[in-house]
Specification:
This protein is of the alpha+beta class. The chain folds into 2 domains: about 150 residues, 2-Layer Sandwich (Ribosomal Protein S5, domain 2); about 90 residues, GHMP kinase, C-terminal domain (Alpha-Beta Plaits, 2-Layer Sandwich), CATH 3.30.70. Helix content is about 30%, strand content about 30%. The protein contains 9 helices and 11 strands. The strands form 3 sheets. Strands 1-4-6-5 form a 4-stranded mixed β-sheet. The chain has a 4-stranded antiparallel β-sheet with strand order 2-3-7-8. Strands 9-11-10 form a 3-stranded antiparallel β-sheet, with helices on one face. β2 and β3 form a beta hairpin. α1 packs parallel to α2 and α2 packs across α3. The longest helix has 16 residues. The protein is globular, with a radius of gyration of 18 Å.
């Protein structure tokens, strides 16, 4: 079975408070990007294997989220081992959610491959154990995300009439670096209402808090955003904690 885990972008990202468990509560709009995908192949096997090509994945392969997703399902269902091959296309450490997508699509693929009939709600529960935004990729639809970025409210939101261009400046931003310059602050604004305003007004009202901490240390990322506006973007922003930047363009 071959599936295509896709990327996502954050339209607005506010860090509203630090939690007692050390994580942060955020609010953001998650929007799926279907033309930027990894390739994940799963084949039934006599032993569990994982391999990858494409962009090099840092760290030990045994800690890959795809393997962790398999172990979660294996602990509750008597499924055979699988041979997993991941061709990595979505940049790593870019705020595009590629690793989370791989894990979520692994859960969904195992469910389909072995006809486990796991409900969407239960798949979301599994995904929440793997990472904050993994659960988003189970249903893969635009949502308002809150708390740790792992709780969602569906929203009616569609950018299909626009072109979304993503630029990756080949800079890896780690979580520790991203949050080091953040001062959590609750906002009196309602992102769900702001997103319904004309896109032309987003530049003034919809912000990514991480830009304030990332741009001073990585001027290259700031210049990418400026160039997208120079090229005619209606709205441009860093996604997630960076370093990828996207621009929304009128297709005309």
């Amino acid at each position: 079975m071959i599936v295509f885990p896709n990327a996502k972008i954050n339209i607005g990202l506010r860090v509203v408070e630090k939690r007692q468990d050390g994580f942060h509560n955020i609010e953001s709009i998650f929007y799926p990007i279907f033309n930027l995908c990894d390739v994940l192949e799963i084949v039934e096997s006599t032993e569990l294997k994982f391999s990858s090509t494409g962009i090099e994945i840092p760290g030990n392969a045994s800690s890959n989220l795809c393997l962790k997703a398999f172990e979660l399902i294996k602990s509750d269902f008597n499924i055979p081992f699988v041979n997993i091959h991941l061709h990595k296309v979505i940049p790593i450490g870019a705020g595009l959610g590629g690793g989370s997508a791989d894990a979520a699509f692994m859960l969904k693929a195992l469910n389909d491959l072995f006809e486990l009939k796991i409900t969407s709600d239960r798949l979301i529960s599994y995904a929440q154990k793997l990472g904050s935004d993994c659960a988003f990729f189970i249903e893969n639809k635009p949502v308002y995300a809150f708390n740790k970025g792992d709780e969602f409210e569906p929203i009616e939101f569609d950018l299909s009439n626009y072109e979304i261009k993503i630029e990756y400046p080949n800079i890896h931003i780690g979580t520790a670096e991203a949050y080091s310059g953040i001062s959590p602050q609750k906002s009196g604004c309602n992102l769900k209402k702001e997103i319904d305003r004309p896109i032309e007004s987003w530049k003034q009202i919809i912000k990514n808090d991480f830009e304030n901490s990332i741009f001073p240390n990585h001027l290259k990322i700031k210049k990418v955003k400026e160039q997208l506006y120079a090229d005619g973007a209606i709205y441009a922003s860093m996604t997630g904690s960076g370093s990828a930047v996207f621009g929304v363009f009128d297709k005309k």
